[in-house]
Amino acid sequence: MNTQESITDWPDYKRTKHCLIALLIFWIPFGALTGVLLPAILHTFIVTNILALVYVLFTGYAWLQYAFFPCPNCDIPYRGRQLWRRTCPKCGVEINT
Ligand SMILES: [Zn+2]
Question: In whole angstroms, what is the distance from residue 50 CA to residue 94 CA?
Answer without folding.
Answer: 40
